[in-house]
């Protein structure tokens, strides 16, 4: 430490006129490798300033000042505990260091306290023993040390040792007899030399006088050396013996460790063997039950024994123990017990399935409605064997699958019989209703021959009216579809439970179940992977359920399709009834998760195709049927008249149905086809003017679409109205013509002259258009002749129009308006071109109104 003090003073503080007072080698608390020096210094000027430095040595082995604080900034000096090496200084923050030695820490803290005594505001010293702290102010005058300011300049060395009391007394005695030491130092030195010579002589005499004691001492030392040699030899013997003992004890420890390991291994082996024996062992009573049980009496005991057998066979064994001979032998015993269990259960249930195959079903005794028998008796009879089926599936999947085939085969025969009778009953009811509505049919005929075929092309050339069996057909169809769902649902629920369709105990599904378990335990991503595996198992379960139900109900879809096809003979709208009802039951079956939804959906596809085919036939019948009666008035075309019955019946069937969109797609096609067909038919008919055919049929369609209020046909309704008005206007223009023809020709010439540049006021000067010529033409149209011509026109219009549409008055009013417009046109030209001629027609607008009104009333 002295060399470091010298180095620090020379390299760090002397160039800055500073003097090192105390130093302490410290390190950061809890960071022993970060070391530095705490240095207490003072400046050489007067008065000196006390400073505290932290000095560190850099990578180039050179001391550098890191931080500095005036001693007046130190607030607290804390040694934490007297016995530790820790030191805390509270300055701008708390600095924690750890000293290398306790003596350095004590000396540094004492110097800090001593030098801080002269400060106006000294630090607070905590957890520091009082004997470390010496306050110069408290020294008494009797003390041998007087406190002067120079004391602050003398550092307290770290190797300082205070004198003892005896030394202090001797020193005081010596100094008391040498009062002249200050005034005569040479005399004092001679006195000291004489005293020293006297003391040396006395010491020599004392040594010579004690020769005998020295001899005795030397002899004692030699004897001690001899004894020590003996003790050393004996200790060597002991050490050698201890070495042999140490080796023996090490061997004993190794043997003890080996014994301990062997005991531990034996204990573990015993536990493993005990676990194997416990897991693979089956109580004797269960073995007896598995060997001697008979069903149905011992069903519960057999279930308990089967559970114990399954537990033993599925017991997990430690790796390697499954190759033990005893384990293999026990496994063979378990296989024999499994075979006996499988034989007992399979034989009894096989016989029971065959016996229950004669079940007649359950139907309410009091109801007269169409009912499909249920087989709840079979389910109740088999439900107690559900647990045995579960155990059989886990123990012998082959036998379980064979039993499943027997059950599905037996039940398929039952349901095939029931479904056939059920649909035959439905057909019989429909036939009975049709015969009731057609009593003229021969009583000698039976069955389907009695049912007349329903028309296919309802919008063709024949006028038809809808039959009355539609509501009855709909009720029978709804009843038939409704009866199938509870029966299928009950059978599906029973199969899921009894045939373990929702179980993962079978060996074929074990890997997938393990996969789901691993995913749920975090073996793979627990989010999407778990969801994917769950969906995979769900799909497999649904497929297994559908396969089982398809095996039980193999005749359901053929019988249903056959019944639906039969409806074609009953009612022309059969496909609409079936489409609506079947769609409702498909949604209901999907909501309940029934297998029936797949069958209904398949039938719905076929019905939709039949519906499209039926509607296509209507469309083709409109475009194809161009034969009209050319000898009589045409009137309303058959497909236009039939469309009213067709649309009203279809709207009633599809009311509040989600399948109405299928009908609306065809509405636009049918109406557009009728528009096209009306134009074609009007051009081919020669008896009735084509404008009348268009007018009456488009008016009929417009009126019908306005009544039906079918939103998808709004555009067609507006188009029909426009076509009706166009045809009405064309008819009026063509057949009303110009009753004042000569006047119209006269004024056409006037208009031509005006167009050529002649002024209207100069027209009367033209020879061909003079006032005299105008009077002559006007006289040719007296009121009586005009009225007679209108009567002839009314009779002609009356012959053209049909009475059903009642458009005669509409056409007559339109002609009245046309006549008035021509009259006004002629009167205006007379007023402009012949203002002073006093020429007017013999009749007025009021006369025209009276002519038209009288003619309409007279007819």
From TrEMBL:
Segments for region (Disordered): 510-536
InterPro entries: Sec3-PIP2_bind, Sec3_C, Sec3_CC
Biased composition (Low complexity): 520-534
Family assignment from sequence similarity: Belongs to the SEC3 family.
Pfam families xrefs: Sec3-PIP2_bind (PF15277), Sec3_C-term (PF20654), Sec3_CC (PF09763)
Gene3D superfamilies, sorted: 2.30.29.90
Highest taxon of source: Eukaryota
Record flagged with keyword Transport: yes
Residues that span the membrane, as ranges: none
One CC-aspect GO term: plasma membrane
Coiled coil ranges: none
Keywords: Coiled coil, Exocytosis, Transport
Organism: Cephus cinctus
Domain Exocyst complex component Sec3 PIP2-binding N-terminal: 31-119
GO molecular function, one term: phosphatidylinositol-4,5-bisphosphate binding
Name by which UniProt lists this protein: Exocyst complex component 1
GO biological process: exocytosis; Golgi to plasma membrane transport
